[in-house]
Each structure stands twice: as structure tokens, then as C-alpha cells.
Amino acid sequence: MYKQCGYCVTSDGKTIVCYHPTVDVPYELTQILKAHLSKEVLRDKKGPTIEELSKMFFTTKHRWYPVGQYHQRRRKKDPPKDR
């Protein structure tokens, strides 16, 4: 399934050049996202739980918690301008 990668050295011998061809993955091997939000699922809830969100987007649970007041107050109000 995987093709071999090719590599060579430049004429001055200082740089190694690698070639990684793209891999064609058959449709049968791709994963379908099973988590979906329908009206029946959200009937009694305001929205998805933190656990559902982390599974749906493949992130940690900490990504979905709000920033606390302590950290909000310590944030700089006027960040430095870009050059």
C-alpha cells in the first residue's frame, strides 16, 4: 500500500533531498464521523458535552473549558503592535 520514498544528495554533498509521494487511500478505509447532532439528541440538552466535543474533534477536554477570571484579569489589555 505504501510507496517507497526516494532520496538523493545534491552535487555539493551538503544537502539531502527527499521525495515522499502522496498515498492514495481507498474510500473503504476512511473513517466516518459517527457523532452527529440531531434535534432528538439535543432535545433535553443545551448542547454537546465537553466529552462529546473532545471525541468529535479529537482534542483534549481542556480545550473546551472557559478561561477563568484569574487568567482573564492577568491578560494584557493592549498587546504590542506588530512591526
Automatic annotation (TrEMBL):
InterPro entries xrefs: Ribosomal_mL42
Task: Identify the Pfam families for this entry.
Answer: MRP-S32 (PF10210)
Keywords, ordered alphabetically: Mitochondrion, Ribonucleoprotein, Ribosomal protein, Transit peptide
Kindly report the protein's main subcellular placement as a broad class: mitochondrion
Places the protein is found? Mitochondrion
Query: GO CC: one term?
Result: mitochondrial large ribosomal subunit
Protein family according to the UniProt entry? Belongs to the mitochondrion-specific ribosomal protein mL42 family.
Give the matching PANTHER family: LARGE RIBOSOMAL SUBUNIT PROTEIN ML42, MITOCHONDRIAL 39S RIBOSOMAL PROTEIN L42
Its recorded name reads Large ribosomal subunit protein mL42
